[in-house]
Amino acid sequence: MLKRIQIQHLTLGMYLHEFCGSWMEHPFWRAKFLLKDPKDLERIKATAIHECWIDTSKGLDVATGTTSVSREEVDAKIETDFSRLEDLPPIQVSLPVPPPPVRNRTPTDMQGELKMAAAICVKSKKAVVSMFSEARMGRAVDSVGAQSLVEEISDSVTRNPGALISLARLKTADDYTYMHSVAVCALMVALARQLKLNDEQTRLAGMAGLLHDLGKAAIPMSVLNKPGKLTDKEFTVVRSHPVEGFHMLKEGGNVPDAVLDACLHHHEKIDGSGYPDKLQGEGISVIARMTAICDVYDAITSDRPYKSGWDPSESLRRMAEWTSDHFDARLFQAFVKSIGIYPVGSLVRLTSGRIGVVTEQAPTALTTPIVKVFFSTKSDLRIPPELVDLAAPGCNEKIVAREDPEKWRFPDINELWSGFAEKAW
């Protein structure tokens, strides 16, 4: 049985099933293990993570009277919270910039935008690689070039938000550091649009997403891409990247203060347990709170050298568990609304027992995306792919469960939703 407990109640002999937080917040390259080493227990309690899941069928249970929460209780609360999202009024925030002229953009269909998004990803990766190389040599960021890149990404997300966001998630371990910047930029733009920010404010949010991790240019790639557990020293080096990036951007000039703030504070947490300044609540700027959400989502849905990315919809559920400690709850709600409860690429099961992958969001509802079904659980066989629009009149199908890609290991799941047989850049 799985139980969520406070880290302070963790003891030797318990089976650690999962940390309640991104793997970026702790130095352990794995989560599932029997806790036997006192040094491991000390290291866990020294991290900023407050809660974890234990499996009582594989290790010790908590002492009688100790507060714990079951998996079923947590799932029920998340389902209730997500079901209410459509009824929540939009929240409005503002960033400190003047309104710009309105730009016209023509919406495109998903497949059409995916082709354009692939080209943008190719161009963006080259630009970000160059940006990091310049930063390593102590040169200033090309703010004009960065702004142009943000505008291209912003236009794509405005035409069809699911395309570039989903495509940028498909990065290799070697691509990660660079394409992560592109992905977070796109996610920031989508969130800014959900928050009804104007064009200039949206571009400012996109710039924050593009530059938030520039400080990683100061960290050896051997540490960033290490396929195993980080040493305490290496973990400290990785955690230095917000301050390093802030100084790089500050010294280069021509970068808005809001972007500098997002770079410095995107690892702060609402409860004050983040870094580097342990800010909390509204002491963290809106743009930094936005960046924190987008940064974590892309990180946990992307494959890394030491860990496969989580399914998009499952990632949102896990982030929902951490919200009270990690994220601004209302901004997180807006984020979920911006990409959907079942983001593109999510593996789901329908009422009929067919399994499919989400290919596109419905324009008016969060729970009725378009799904490409391709497998029957009743016959345990692949079936000819078929698009099912859950929002279409007369459609009797609905999503009844999320499915774990690791369980099914469909080799072509990304090709099914993207249309690309290989990574598009």
TrEMBL record:
Residues 155-351 form the HD-GYP domain. Coiled coil: none annotated. Residues 177-300 form the HD domain. It comes from the Bacteria. Pfam families: DUF3391, HD_5. PROSITE patterns: HD, HD_GYP. GO terms for molecular function: phosphoric diester hydrolase activity. Gene3D superfamilies: Hypothetical protein af1432 (1.10.3210.10). PANTHER family: CYCLIC DI-GMP PHOSPHODIESTERASE PA4108 (PTHR43155:SF2), CYCLIC DI-GMP PHOSPHODIESTERASE PA4108-RELATED (PTHR43155). This is Phosphodiesterase.
